[in-house]
C-alpha cells in the first residue's frame, strides 16, 4: 500500500511539473522576459540574487536587469563604463551621458532606470547594491 501511494505521489508530481514546463512553451518571448525580470526583481528584494558575471558588451534595462542600483566590479583589465540615454542613442552614436574609467578590481555603482543603456569595455561582476544600515 505504501509503495502504491509513493508511486501515485511521484506520478502526480511528474504530471504537475510537466504541465508547468508546457505552460512556459506556450508563452511568447515577451511574456517569458517579463516573467524572468519579475522573478529576478523578487529575488533581489529577498536578497537571494547574488549577482552575475558579465562579459564586455552592451546592456540595457529590461535585458536581464530590472531597474535598480547595482555594484559593478571590473574582473580583469581596464576600460570604460559608458551610459547612454537609451539603446537607440547608443546605436545612433550619440554622446554618452556618463563615463567611468575603471581598472582591474575597482568597483563602482550604477543606477539603471528607465530606458538607460550601458556599455562595459571589460568583464565585470554585477550585483544588486544595497545601502548599509547604520549601526548594523
Outline the structure in words.
- There is one protein chain.
- The chain is of the alpha+beta class and 136 residues long.
- It folds into two domains: 49 residues; 87 residues, Jelly Rolls, CATH 2.60.120.
- The protein is 35% helix and 29% strand.
- The chain is built from three helices and eight strands, in the order ααββββαββββ.
- Strands 1-8-3-6 form a four-stranded antiparallel sheet, with no helix packed on it. Strands 2-7-4-5 form a four-stranded antiparallel sheet.
- The longest helix is centred in the N-terminal third of the chain and has 24 residues.
Describe the structure in brief.
The chain is an alpha+beta fold. It has helices at 2-25, 29-46, 87-91, and strands at residues 52-54, 57-60, 68-74, 79-84, 98-102, 107-112, 117-120, 124-128.
What is the CATH fold-level name of the largest domain?
Answer: Jelly Rolls
Unreliable runs: 4-20, 132-136
Beta-strand content: 25-35%
CATH hierarchy, class of the largest domain: Mainly Beta
Structural class: alpha+beta
Whole-angstrom Rg: 21 Å
| Average pLDDT level | 76
The tally of structural domains comes to: 2
What is the H-and-E element order? HHEEEEHEEEE
Overall CATH architecture of the largest domain: Sandwich
Question: Percent helix among the residues?
Answer: 25-40%
Strand sequence of the main sheet, in spatial order? 1-8-3-6
Shape: globular
Biggest sheet: strands, sense, closure?
4 strands, antiparallel
Number of helices: 3
According to DSSP, the number of beta strands is 8
Distance between the termini: 54 Å
